[in-house]
From TrEMBL:
This is LuxR family transcriptional regulator. InterPro entries: AAA_22 (IPR049945), HTH_77 (IPR058852), P-loop_NTPase (IPR027417), TPR-like_helical_dom_sf (IPR011990). Transmembrane segments: none annotated. Residues 276-350 form the Winged helix-turn-helix domain. It comes from Streptomyces kasugaensis. Residues 37-134 form the ORC1/DEAH AAA+ ATPase domain. GO terms for molecular function: ATP hydrolysis activity. Pfam families: AAA_22, HTH_77.
Length: 680
C-alpha cells in the first residue's frame, strides 16, 4: 500500500541564536491557551516577534507531546498547492504513493500526540486554514500553533495578539536601574553591545535610549535594526534620522528572511498581502494620529473607490492583517496604528499625490466635530462630548498643526483651538492651549471674529495660570476687537475675563460689577451657559464683599439651572463655590460632602484645575477633623496637581489664606520631618 515513508527526523525547534527578551508573560499566556484550545494563532504587526514567542512557547511544552514538536516555516513558500508537501517534508515524510499528500500527512498524524507549528501563514491563510481544519478533525491528539498577520478563521481558533515590547513611560524620568528592567531598553542594550563592544545604558545616554525605543514603538525588529546602526552612528544621530526610519533601519542579518532585513521590506510584505481597498484605506487613515473610530474613518477616507458602506469590511481586513489594532471605549470600537505602520502609510499616501486632500478632510472633520461639541456643551451630552474630544486629542493636535503649516489656514486653526470654549480648561492643559493660540495669533494678524475669540481665550488661560500682567494687554486688545466687530457675545466674555483678572488681583468691587454685566449680556443673548458661569463667580465675589445671603442664593440658583438642563461641569463649580463660602462662613459640616460631589462631577472632564480647588476644601476638612496625616497627603496631591496643569493656587487669592492656615496647622501637628515625608 502507498504510504508516507519517513524521510528523516522532524523539523524541530531551531535553537535560539540570541536571548529572547521580555516575553515571559506572553509565553505563559500562549501556553495557557494551548492547554485549552487545539488551535492557537499568534497575530501582531510585522516585526513584533510572533515567531520568537511561538518557538519559545513550543520549547516549553515539548514534554506534553510524546511525538514531539514540528516547526513548518512558510515564509519562503508562494504556491498554496505545495503547502501539504511542505508540511510533509517538515514531518520527515516522502509521498511514494499516488495518494494526495494531505491524505498522507493526515494518516501520519492520526493517533499521534504532536504540536505542529505553522510559522508565517499570512500569505497562505486560506490554504493554512483548510489544512489545520483537516488535521485537527482527523487527529484528536495534535495541536496547531500558527503565526500570522491574518487570523485563520477556523472554528475553535484562539487568537493571541503579540504586543510590542513595553517602553519607558514618556512623562517619567526613571533611573538607569529602572530603565534596564524595561524590555525594549534591555533588548537595545544587548544588541547594541553585540555590535559595539563595551556599550552600556548609562545615566548619560539613558534618555536617548528611552526616546529611541519609544519612537520605534517597542518593535523588536526595529530595535534590532537600530542597534545594528550603532556600528556607525551615535544615539543622537539615530534619533535625528528617525524622521526617515525606513532609510535608517536597513542593516538586518544576512541570514534573515529577505523581508526581515529592512523595515521597509517588512512593511512592503504586509502591504502586498492587502487588497486594493485595504491598501487605499491604510494610506488614508495614516492622516490620523493616536486612534480613531469608524465615523471618523468614513468622514475622512470614504470616496468613489472606497464607499462608506464598504468601510467596515475593509477595516476588518486591516485588523485581521494586524495593520490596525482594535480596542473598545464606552461601547465603541476604536482603531490604532503603530507609528511605524502609520509612517509607511503616509509614504504611500504621499506617493499617490492625495496627501494634501486627505489632511484637509481630516482637519475639516475635527473642525465640524468641535463645532458640534460647542453647540451641545450646556446640556446632558456635555461629558460625552468632552470624552469624545479627549479621545481624539492627538487628532486635534494634527489638525492644528495642519492649520499652522498650510498657508491661509490659520483662521480655521483659531476656530478649532477655541471650540468648545472651555476645552483647554477641562482638559487641564492650560499651557498647551496657550502654546497653540500664541502660534496661531502670530501666524495671522488680520482682524476677524475668529482672531478676536482666540485673543480672548489666550488671555483667559493666562489669567488662570496666574500670568495676569502678561494677559492684560491681550485682554484689552480682545475687548477692543469685540467692540469694533459689535460682537455682543465677545463683549460679554471680555467682561467675564476682565472680571476674573480683577478678582485674582483682589479688586472685588470691579470684579463683581463686571461679572454682573457679563451675566446680563449672556442672558440677553440666550446663552444660559455663559450666564451661569458668570453667576457662579459673581457669588464668590459678592460673598467677600459681605453679601452672604445673596452669594448662597446665587449658588443655589446655578445648581437649579444646571440640574434642570442635565449639565455637569458648571453644576460642579456651583457646588464647589457653595462649599467654599459655607466653610468661610463657619458652616463647615457640609463642605467636605459638597467638594466630593463636585469632584465626582468633574472627573469625567479631567478638569484638574477645578478639581485641585475642590481637593483644597477636602484637605481643609481633614485638618479640621484632626486627620492631619491625611491632610498632609492631600496637600502633596495638590502640589502635584498644580505642577501638572501649569497653574498655581496664587491665581485664586480667595483661597490662599485658608490654604496657608491649613498647611501651618498640619505641619505643627506632625513630628519634625514627617510633614515633608507625607507630602512627598
Amino acid at each position: 500500500m502507498g504510504t508516507g515513508v519517513p524521510l528523516g527526523g522532524m523539523a524541530g525547534i531551531p535553537a535560539d541564536l540570541t536571548a529572547l527578551v521580555g516575553r515571559r508573560t506572553e509565553v505563559a499566556e500562549v501556553r495557557r491557551l494551548l492547554s485549552a484550545s487545539r488551535l492557537v494563532t499568534l497575530t501582531g504587526a510585522g516585526g513584533v516577534g510572533k515567531t520568537r514567542v511561538a518557538l519559545r512557547t513550543a520549547a516549553t511544552v515539548t514534554r506534553a507531546f510524546r511525538d514531539g514538536v514540528c516547526v513548518v516555516e512558510l515564509a519562503g513558500l508562494r504556491d498554496p498547492k505545495l503547502l501539504a508537501h511542505t508540511v510533509a517534508t517538515a514531518l520527515g515524510l516522502v509521498n511514494q504513493s499516488g495518494r494526495a499528500t494531505l491524505d498522507v500527512v493526515t494518516g501520519h498524524v492520526r493517533g499521534r500526540r504532536l504540536l505542529l507549528v505553522l510559522d508565517n501563514c499570512e500569505h497562505l491563510v486560506d490554504a493554512c486554514a483548510r489544512l489545520a481544519d483537516t488535521l485537527l478533525r482527523a487527529a484528536p491528539g495534535i495541536r496547531v500553533l500558527t503565526t500570522s498577520r491574518h487570523v485563520l478563521g477556523v472554528t475553535g481558533e484562539q487568537v493571541f495578539v503579540v504586543p510590542p515590547l513595553p517602553t519607558p513611560v514618556p512623562s517619567r524620568r526613571p533611573s538607569v536601574r529602572e530603565l534596564l528592567t524595561c524590555p525594549a531598553v534591555e533588548l537595545f542594550g544587548r544588541r547594541a553591545a553585540a555590535v559595539l563592544p563595551g556599550f552600556e545604558v548609562t545615566q548619560d545616554n539613558a534618555e536617548a535610549v528611552a526616546q529611541l525605543v519609544q519612537r520605534l514603538d517597542g518593535l523588536p525588529l526595529a530595535i534590532e535594526l537600530a542597534a545594528a546602526r550603532m556600528r556607525t552612528l551615535t544615539l543622537h544621530e539615530m534619533l535625528a534620522r528617525l524622521e526617515d526610519r525606513f532609510a535608517l533601519l536597513t542593516l538586518g542579518s544576512r541570514t534573515a528572511l529577505p523581508r526581515q532585513r529592512t523595515l521597509r521590506a517588512l512593511m512592503d510584505w504586509s502591504h502586498a498581502l492587502c487588497t486594493e481597498r485595504e491598501r487605499a484605506l491604510w494610506a488614508r487613515v495614516s492622516v490620523f494620529s493616536g486612534d480613531f473610530d469608524l465615523r471618523a474613518a468614513a468622514a475622512v477616507c470614504a470616496a468613489d473607490d472606497l464607499p462608506a458602506e464598504a468601510l467596515v469590511d475593509v477595516v476588518d481586513g486591516l485588523v485581521e492583517k494586524s495593520v490596525l489594532t482594535r480596542h473598545e471605549h464606552g461601547g465603541r470600537a476604536r482603531y490604532r496604528m503603530l507609528e511605524t505602520v502609520r509612517e509607511y502609510g503616509q509614504d504611500r499616501l504621499a506617493a499617490s499625490g492625495t496627501a494634501a486632500a486627505y489632511r484637509r478632510r481630516h482637519r475639516d472633520h475635527y473642525l465640524g466635530l468641535t463645532a458640534q461639541a460647542q453647540a451641545q456643551w450646556f446640556g446632558p451630552e456635555q461629558a460625552a462630548w468632552f470624552t469624545r474630544l479627549r479621545l481624539d486629542h492627538a487628532n486635534l493636535r494634527v489638525a492644528l498643526d495642519y492649520c499652522l503649516t498650510e498657508p491661509g489656514e490659520a483662521v480655521a486653526g483659531m476656530r478649532l483651538a477655541v471650540t468648545p470654549r472651555h476645552y483647554w480648561i477641562t482638559l487641564g492643559s492650560l499651557h498647551e492651549g496657550r502654546h497653540w493660540l500664541d502660534r496661531l495669533l502670530a501666524a495671522e494678524r488680520a482682524q476677524s471674529p475668529a482672531r478676536a475669540t482666540a485673543l480672548g481665550t489666550y488671555a483667559y488661560l493666562g489669567v488662570l495660570q496666574g500670568a495676569i500682567e502678561e494677559a492684560l494687554p491681550a485682554l484689552d486688545e480682545y475687548r477692543a476687537a469685540a467692540e469694533h466687530l459689535e460682537d455682543a457675545s465677545a463683549l460679554a466674555w471680555a467682561r467675564h475675563h476682565q472680571a476674573l483678572a480683577a478678582a485674582f488681583r483682589w479688586d472685588l468691587p470691579r470684579a463683581a460689577a463686571l461679572f454682573e454685566d457679563a451675566a446680563a449680556g449672556h442672558r440677553a443673548l440666550g446663552d444660559l451657559g455663559g450666564a451661569t458661569e458668570c453667576t457662579v463667580k459673581l457669588a464668590i465675589a459678592v460673598w467677600h464683599l459681605g453679601d452672604h445671603d445673596r452669594a448662597l442664593a446665587l449658588c443655589r440658583e446655578c445648581e437649579a439651572v444646571t440640574s434642570a438642563h442635565g449639565e455637569s461641569w458648571l453644576r460642579a463649580l456651583a457646588l464647589f463655590a457653595r462649599g467654599l463660602l459655607q466653610w468661610q462662613g463657619g458652616d463647615r459640616d457640609t463642605t467636605d460632602g459638597l467638594a466630593r460631589e463636585a469632584i465626582r462631577l468633574m472627573r469625567p472632564f479631567h478638569d484638574w484645575w477645578d478639581i485641585a480647588m475642590c481637593v483644597e476644601l477636602v484637605a481643609w476638612s481633614a485638618e479640621a477633623a484632626g486627620a492631619t496625616r491625611r491632610a498632609a497627603h492631600l496637600l502633596g496631591i495638590l502640589r502635584s496637581l498644580w505642577e501638572t496643569i501649569g497653574g498655581t493656587l496664587s491665581a485664586a487669592p480667595f483661597m490662599a489664606e485658608s490654604h496657608q492656615r491649613c498647611e501651618d496647622a498640619v505641619r505643627a501637628a506632625l513630628p519634625a520631618g514627617e510633614f515633608d515625608r507625607a507630602v512627598r
